[in-house]
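Page 42, continued from yesterday. The earlier attempt failed because a stray header line got pasted into the input along with the sequence. Redoing it now with the clean sequence only.
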Amino acid sequence: MTHQRANPLLSTALDLAASSVPVLPLRQGKVPFGNCQTCSGGTCGGRPHMKSAGTCRCAAPCHGWAAATTDPAVITSPTWARAWRTAAAVAYHPGGVGLTVLDLDNPAAIAWARANLPGTRTVPTTRGEHWLYRGAMQSANAVRPGIDIKSTMAYARWLGPGTGTIAALPDAVRALAVKEPPAVRPAGVPVPARAGDSGCPHRTATYLDRGIAMAEQRITQARESVHATVYRTFLAVLSVHGRCGCLTQAHTARLFTAAQAKGESPRHCTDAWTNARTRLGL
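This time it went through. Structure tokens are written below.
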């Protein structure tokens, strides 16, 4: 262990792993080590699209964020030892420890965050800051100029513990990762009703808001078959609220945000919404 601890990056990795933070080594250029020959093409099953850390079962750190681990036996294994000898940095999987990192890459991005987001723990970077929030979400690049989100299925460089208290992940950060929903009829512009339709069924705005809130809850509480649940929920919302022109971009954004928080990609959300509209003839 003394010899292993002589490497400061390995020492940092072991300390983080002891605190249940999944770690991996990075090469020069802040990139993971490449696939080993045994796992070329992700044949071992540890493909980077998988949604939990540690899915790589080989000894080499060869699948980016998915190879992140808290197992000291893996971190100090002979194969990983070769990586640590040439590594340039330690990375960790924020989503694997229930965190979201807002990567602010320049002073303008930092100024925007200070003006629009709740304060939280900050970590200085080479060109900007990492803002750490408690809670995991879908990662996304370039959500605004100079701003990336690193959480699930992503890694971030370990640059120290930072300063300040970690705040809960705010809705304003979740909303940054939500792609613009497909076009929905603007409020007040109804779709021509089919024969037999009796017009808008919403007596008050509260009726619609309650329906959207229930749909969000249904998606959030899904424990399995998330994609199917999202589609069925979109279908249910559109079947009740899809013909009278009351749905707005704000309503669909709420649904998309809930779906993406459960791991659905923006494309999956768009496809599910489009398919539900098509099925209903909207």
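Notes: Residues 45-54, 181-198 have pLDDT under 50 and may be disordered.
Reminder to self: strip header lines before submitting.
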